[in-house]
Amino acid sequence: MTVRYQSRLFGATQNALILFIAAAILIPIYWMVAAGFKSYAEVFEAGWTFTPTLENFRAIMNPPYEIHKKFFNSTVVAIVTIAIAIPVATLSAYSFSRFRLRYEKSIFMAIIATQFVPSIILVLPFFILFRDTGLLDTWAALILVNLSFVTPYAVWMIKGFIDAIPLDTEEAALVDGSTRLQVIKNVVIPMAAPGLITASIFCFIICWNEFLLALIVTSKDAVTLPVGLAMFTAEEGDLWQLISATGVLIMLPMFALGMIIQKHFIQGSTSGAVR
User: Fold this and answer.
1) Rounded to 5 degrees, what angle do the CA atoms 146, 147, 153 make?
2) Best CATH choice for the domain 57-271 from the list 1.10.10.10, 3.40.50.300, 3.40.350.10, 1.10.3720.10
């Protein structure tokens, strides 16, 4: 077997594997998106062709579903959570990275350990807390719940990017008369921007997709999109065409964010691993 033949065989195998993986990822997505534009009868047909309709999207926007309100709730909760979590996580990560603190490793490990606590364990404490404080079914409850999850994750993630920033650049700014906060604002944040963007994306995804705790602490006014998916049932069973139409709306912000900040996302995903 010649080297050229082996090279061609390897290339063909590699291309076939890539196509297989791409099909395994894209076909379910296509099937879900297509179902959002199908009628109820067409959803249960195995054909690849169908007559597109926007009736499902009209239906989910009207009572009793009113998905646009759930979309607004999810957007507000996710944005406010990120707006609070990322600055707090950045300052915390900078402290862990640059200062030697008493019990530093223990504190940092305690922060990381929160990521291993199953959500189901926290359901009852959060429900009792929000019931007693009158925060059930409010944006504030959802924001506090999401902050408890995304802030430790953001601290852990951003610390890796700050660790990769050379100390010389900060020392030079301090020698020139900058304060520590000015150094963070003018030196650290610009250099760690890809990492901050990456952390923001992942935290946004966590907030956007959170279901279990949102299901427990909301009932009507602050219901989010993932919880709204549970409404699509009728006497004839699950309304898959409406579920799929809502799924399209849930995916749209993720795809939009990915397209807009793809460059920063890739750079941030790789730069934090280089020390």
Assistant:
1) 100
2) 1.10.3720.10
